[in-house]
Amino acid sequence: MKFLNVLLIGQASSGKSSFINTCATALLDENRIVTKVAVLEPMSSGVTTDFCAKPLKINEERFLPVRLFDCRGLHSLNGIHDDDIIKICEGNIKSGYKFDPARSISTDHDKFRKEPSLSDKMHCVVYVAAADIPKEMLADAKAADQLKTLRMYLSGENISQLLLLNKIDRLGIKNINTIFKNRMVKETCEGAKEFMDMPMGNILPMINYADDVLPVDMKDFLALYSLWQMMNKAYDYVTAQLDIPDGFYD
Ligand SMILES: Nc1nc2c(ncn2[C@@H]2O[C@H](COP(=O)(O)OP(=O)(O)OP(=O)(O)O)[C@@H](O)[C@H]2O)c(=O)[nH]1
Ligand SMILES: [Mg+2]
């Protein structure tokens, strides 16, 4: 298997593309900020959206063996059908699919993968929220239901779930090098932990490149740490699946 698959799912403007961009910057051995990739171009209606991943370069020849899939969801306005989110996790939906809020992907669509293998499935799911408004991620009842359905499915499959809390800088932090000692950051992470009912280690505080001109070590560090956690969880899932002998559950 060539790539670990990680699904980033969160509402519009939660910072999904910015996180991918920050990872791309942190991975390069250069003193420049990678130009923001248009990972997802919002459609004019604001509800339809593509499903895609972009390669993460380490240098001119090599790529990191992980695919971060960018997917808008967990908010009814984003219009992704509940069934489609599960189908993404199962590996049924190919990169480049345009979601239709009105209906789930049909099995004869050319972006529908009929017989997904382990390498097509999502190996780790990351909910993405903005730290200044974490609960707005689930602002309506439909989204709460969607999250519940997804979480039940993922728990049943033993797929790890993480929470990426972007925009930590918006909590009024004066010095980003002290974020792990900051009371507001601690309280926000604890609030998110309670809200999502997750272990503290699964909450990833993050500050992305937004208006920066020069690279910032702390942002690079946070991106690499979060990416490493995601890859670890994905790797654990894949190895657990591969370790199951054929016919074990028959
Ligand atoms: N201050 C600050 N701004 C951020 C951070 N992360 C993202 N932003 C800003 O938030 C806005 C939305 O970020 P995006 O990365 O486009 O969000 P997205 O989740 O990809 O949004 P969609 O593609 O529309 O679903 C942009 O203006 C970013 O510059 C962060 O950590 N701190
Ligand atoms: Mg985006």
Description:
The chain is of the alpha/beta class. It has helices at residues 16-27, 82-90, 141-157, 183-196, 217-242, and strands spanning 4-10, 52-54, 66-72, 124-130, 160-166, 203-205. The chain has a 6-stranded mixed sheet, sandwiched between helices. β4 (124-130), α3 and β5 form a beta-alpha-beta unit. α2 (82-90) runs parallel beside α3. The two termini are 25 Å apart. Residues 38-48 have low confidence and may be disordered. Magnesium ion (MG) is lined by residues 16-17, 39-40, 70.
N-to-C span = 25 Å
CATH architecture: 3-Layer(aba) Sandwich
- Counted up, domains total 1
Total of helices: 5
Secondary-structure element string: EHEEHEHEHEH
| Global Rg | 18 Å
In short:
By secondary structure, the chain is α/β, with parallel strands linked by helices. 31% of the residues lie in helices and 14% in strands.
Write the SSE topology.
Layout: E1 4-10, H1 16-27, E2 52-54, E3 66-72, H2 82-90, E4 124-130, H3 141-157, E5 160-166, H4 183-196, E6 203-205, H5 217-242
Parallel strand pairs: 1-3, 1-4, 4-5, 5-6
Antiparallel strand pairs: 2-3
